Give the backbone structure.
Amino acid sequence: MTNARTNTPTNTPTYAPTHAPTHAMPSSHTPAPKLTGVAATALGVTAIRAREHRRPDRLFADPYAQHFLDFSADDAPTTGTQPAPTPELFTLMADQVAVRTRFLDDVLTSAARAGTTQMVLLACGMDARSFRLDWPPATTLFEVDFADTLAYRAAVLVAHGITAGCRRTEVPTDLREDWPTALCAAGFDPGLPTTWLMEGILYALTPVAADLLLGRVTANSAPGSILALDHQEDSALLRGARRALSEELVDLWHGGPTEALAPWLARHGWQPEVHTLEELTAQYGRPVPPPFDPQHPATGRSWLATGHLPA
Ligand SMILES: C[S@@+](CC[C@H](N)C(=O)[O-])C[C@H]1O[C@@H](n2cnc3c(N)ncnc32)[C@H](O)[C@@H]1O
């Protein structure tokens, strides 16, 4: 299968910090790969989380997000201490990312409190949940993504001496391929109930790849497992904002499952609970982001969902 990252585009998006770097990078830090293609989208989400962290009314704290961004800017041309303008895409997606992060934080931490000890963060990108959330010491978090994404992430963690309060295992792999073999080789136990996270990934997969991913998750889920995910539809508004940042971002969107989330999850054996973004933004006191506002024409919808496998 072709790896999207090897098709190096001419206009790969770069995510220079929209805030002046807060920490000087240690001069001896390990060189990290430059993230391109879909892997680079992890830094876009991180830029939004770094901004959310600075809000007085933030929905979650992520003090690590700025470190990941500063690292990407380390070899970028300097423009003094002036922050770069905020891309329109980040403004449009800010409340979706804030609400989804908080919602999924709550799902994972309540699963841990209820006794799940094994969590798998699929397509983890710069997800800092291993570091920023309180985990019972018996918890193991598996962080799964492309090798380059994990290498970038690891370089930042080493440079800043960031360690997790739980067991943490990185699993470099491609989620369109046989990743369960790599996960099991890394110590994952399919006999234990697992909490799975699929955040910010379904849109990047074709319908077939999304279905295969869910099938593999299900095949490796013991009774009592939980799955948490977000999903969104594309729209002219989002396509325009992605194109303004990089033409490549328009093509990275493959749409994910074509079925509605509830029947899709149910068909794979999960008991689904699906929330619309507008329901959750109301709950968390945020406006409905324009690309997902059903009041506006030509927009899409966004959802957050959980699935349970009966114990
Ligand atoms: C938008 S980011 C989301 C990252 C993270 N889940 C979050 O919400 O912060 C998408 C992530 O999916 C990863 N990804 C996309 N396609 C993948 C694949 N086929 N295999 C492994 N990782 C993939 C990218 O490397 C990137 O880290």
User: Anything to note?
Assistant: The beta strands are 118-122, 140-145, 167-172, 194-198, 226-232, 271-276, 302-308. The pocket of S-adenosylmethionine is lined by residues 38-39, 41-42, 45, 123-127, 145-146, 149, 174-176, 199-201, 204 (CB under 6 Å).
